[in-house]
Each structure stands twice: as C-alpha cells, then as structure tokens.
Amino acid sequence: MHRTEVINAISDIFSNANHRIDVCGNSNFPLKISSFESVRKVVIAAKNRGISLRFIIEITKENLQYCKDLMKITDELRHMDEIEANFGLSETEYLGSITLQEEALQATYSNVKEVVEQQQFIFDTLWSKATPAEQKIREIEEGIEPEVIETIRNPFEIQKIAFELVKSARDEILLVFSTANAFHRQERTGMIKLLKEAAAGRRVHIRILTPIDDLIKGTVQKLIREQQQQNQPRIDIRFIGRFSQTKIRILVVDKASSLVVELKDDTKESSFEAMGLATYSNSKSTVLSYVSIFETLWMQTELYEQLVESNNGLAKAYEQLEAANEQLKVHEKMQKEFINVASHELRTPIQPILGLSEVLYAKIKDTEQRQLLDTITRNAKRLQRLTDDILDVTKIESQSLKLNKERFNLNDVITNVIDEMIVNREFKNEKSDYDNNNIKLEYRPKDIFVEADRIRVTQVISNLLNNSIKFTKEGKITITIEKKDDDGEVAVISIKDTGIGIDSEMFPKLFSKFASKSYQGTGLGLFICKSIVEAHDGKIWAENNNNQEKKGATFYFTLPTINRQQDVKVVD
C-alpha cells in the first residue's frame, strides 16, 4: 500500500469502527497526525460518534505540544519509552507496519480475524505497561527523572556507570568494598583517582569502608600525606572486616543514586572478570536503604575506634556494637517478614479473581467476552506463580523449605500436569498426543515409583514444561522417564523441546536467581527447581540438543526410586 491507499485505509478503519480504535505510534506519530489533515478529521469524527480511542505514543520534549493536542481528541493517551511500532486496529481491521515518511507512506492491511486478535493482544499488553500521559508530561515539564531499578549484566557497562556516577557527584559519595582485592581492582581501574579529583576539584565529601591489608594501609597513609601537604578536603577511609557473605560493592552518590555490584570471583585480577550482576537505582526508598546500611557500618567502625582508644568505655561500646548488630538483624528480619506478608496479601485477591473468572467463563457464550476472561485468567495465574515463587525463594534462603514425602507413581504426577494444561486450555487433547497450535507434546506412560514430596515434584515438572513451551514456537516437546543405576537406582525425568535452545552465556548461571535473558519471567523458576531437586538428594542439569537442526534443549533431573516396590500398593 502506498501513500493515497494508506490514508484511505486509515480513514476506512476509523469510519468502519463500531466500538473502539487502538493506535500505537513512535515519537514521530503525533506530528504526522497533525500534518495529515484528512487523518485528523476522521479521528475527530470517530470521537464524535462515541468510538473509544486509545493511543500509545512515545512522548518526548520534541513532540510534547503535539501530544497535548492529541489528548484533546482521544479518550486516553499513554506513554511508552522507545516504542517503534506504528499500527492501528478496530474490532475487525488492522493497519500495521506504517512508515510515516511523506514521500513513501506505506502500510500493511488485514481483516483476518486471527491477525486482528493477535495485534489486539499485543496492544493490550503494551497498554497495561504504559505510563499515563499526564504523568510523563509532568516529568518532562518539571525535569523529574523517573525512578528506576535496573539490573545490569555487562561488566563494561557497570564500570562505565560507576565512573559516570562519581563524575556527577556534587555533595557526597559513599563507597563500600567487600574485600581488599575489590579495593585493589578498583584502584587499578582509576576509581581512586576519580575520587581524589571529586574531593579536590568539587569538594565532594567522600567516605569509604574497606577491609584492610598492608597495601591498602600504605595507600591510605599516602593519601593522607598528599591531602595534608596540598590542604585538600579529606577522603575519609575506615576499615571493616570482610563485608557480608553476599560479597557486594555499594556505591551511593548524593543520596540520589546507588550502584550495587555482585562480586562473582574475588581471585580475578580484572574487575570485569571479577564482577557479576549489578543493580542501579535512583528510587528514593532503595537508595536510602543503602545509605542506612552504610551509616550503620560506619557507626560500627566509629564504635570500634572508640573501643581501642579507651578501655574505660569498653562495656558501653560493646553494648552499642551489639545494638547495632541487632539493628541489622532486625532490618533483615523486617525485610523477610515484609516479603512474606506482601506475598500472602497478593494471594488473597488472586483466588477470587481466578474462581469468579471460571464461573463467568462457564456462563457466557460470547467469544470476545471469553477471550477477555482468558486474558484476565492468564495474567492472574502469572501473578499467582510469581507470588508462589517469591515465597519459595524466601523459604529456600531461610532454609525452611520442608518436604512432605510419600510414595507415589511418577506417571500419575506427569499425567496430572498434562491434564491440568488441557483443562487450562494450554493444549488440546488428540488421542495420545497433546497439541497447542504448532507445538506437539509427546509422552508415553511408564510406571516408576518414588518416595518424594508429590506437590514439589509436580512444581518442578510444571516449571520445566512451561519453560519449554515459552521458548518453543513449533515442533514438539517430549517427556520421558526411565530408571538408571547412578550410585543407586534413580528415576531420570527429561523434558526435550525444539525451541531456541540455551544461550551459551546463560549456562554458567542457568540455575541461579534472576538468571534470565527473556522478555518475560523473573529468572526464579530454575533456581527453585534446583533447590527442590537437591532437597530430594537428586540432580538437575540441562544441555542443548545435538541434532542436525541444532534446535532446542533438554532438561533432566533425577529422584531416588523406592528400593522395594513390593511395599507399594498400587490402586487402579
């Protein structure tokens, strides 16, 4: 479709719509709507006919006034960063891949029901994540930086952000190193030099907490002499013991931004090899939490110095130090209790949402309404899984995960998981196979008995199967179970798919928390699976398939079998 056809198609969609028009556009979209008077007229005409108009636009400083004008002729306008798609749709028509150059205006049109429904789902997903236009406009006009909490995996990007934060500091820098080697690595990157420039040039108040060794002691003494000779503001450095079991480096700038970096391997010489994930945030509550941690540790060092200087205050200093330690424990306990309470509170509204959705689904016959209920149910279940995952991780980390073992047939568990997917309309039952669009699920029943926690084993199989479904667009998923003699008889369960496979960068941290390169998911599922399997004295691993197409991956896990099957009574 070319220029005239595209404009006519836009006009037709707005003219033919009976109830709604949804539009998604990049930052140039508002300007182009203003430029094409004929398009603007049909939008206004649709509004006057009572058609619901929803727009998602990337709002910027450059298109701010155009977006304000657009808000006057739409029911609701929302913002989304870096959106590239330009498309519009009604109940029955879709116009997408719209290029907005005036010389070569082009688009793709479809009235195929499945295409329209798919694009409607995409729009609804974007709509749920978009920001109200009023909020974004206020942030731009008032110069407010949106609060973010971002996970960063690239070590070069992490180091770059650390340098930029130090260079941007105007009042205060707080820095905690978890090991002496971490201090040395950052010294080699030039971080200490940057800190000295910030203190001398911009008179930024800098405080550092670090474990000590002879080299660090020498560096500090040299730094003190330089500051005294040149009459420079002091960089205050205090010594602490090895900081926590988590091995993290904390950087807080002006009580406005924080960068927390995980130490992956303290034996490495290079910072880029030593560091793991990092979390950047300018969220006030998050940043102030790290400020509180720093001040508590700083206070502990202050108490320690007082204790060394005066034996007379030994008892009091010890009590204060214990109180500080207790405060840290209370903070940690409060954090865990908050997670537990929040997770349980989330569960409370989810159950009636799911229950009432199923009741409504059984009562209504309208296809569109059923599709809307499907969306509600699917998202409620995702929220339910996330809540359960958070609770499970809390139990695992507090070592309170308990197993209720019983003897059962693995075949029953796998069959129940598949049946539940059929009930939830994730697969259609066709004889012995299970089909979901282009994905076929294959399973051949086989009786193998284990003594384990039935619910937790079901959770592992469901997680692994859902993981395969998420990354498989076509082909098949195959579930197999068999017995093997591996330091005693074990049951080996495998789930093999023909999906995209496992990225090589993910293998070392595949079963770690928050390990994910996917646009969806939290990266908790495989961590929970590993913890459950190992709690049963089993093993879990994964590998990419070695086939001609080099497609897909296979996940395996083992469970000890029952040694004497004659003790198990099987009821048909």
Description:
This protein is α+β, with helices and mostly antiparallel strands. It folds into four domains: 3-142, Endonuclease, Chain A; 149-290, Endonuclease Chain A (Endonuclease, Chain A, 2-Layer Sandwich); 310-400; 405-567, 2-Layer Sandwich (Heat Shock Protein 90). It contains 17 helices and 23 strands. It has helices at 3-16, 29-35, 37-48, 64-71, 113-129, 133-142, 155-168, 180-189, 191-201, 214-229, 271-274, 284-309, 314-363, 367-397, 410-423, 454-470, 525-535, and strands at 20-25, 52-57, 76-79, 87-89, 94-99, 106-110, 131-132, 149-152, 172-176, 205-210, 235-239, 248-253, 257-263, 275-281, 405-409, 428-430, 433-436, 439-443, 449-453, 475-485, 489-496, 540-544, 553-560. The strands form four sheets. Strands 6-5-4-1-2-3-7 form a seven-stranded mixed β-sheet, with helices on both faces. A seven-stranded mixed β-sheet has the order 8-14-13-12-9-10-11, with helices on both faces. It is flat and about 80 Å long.
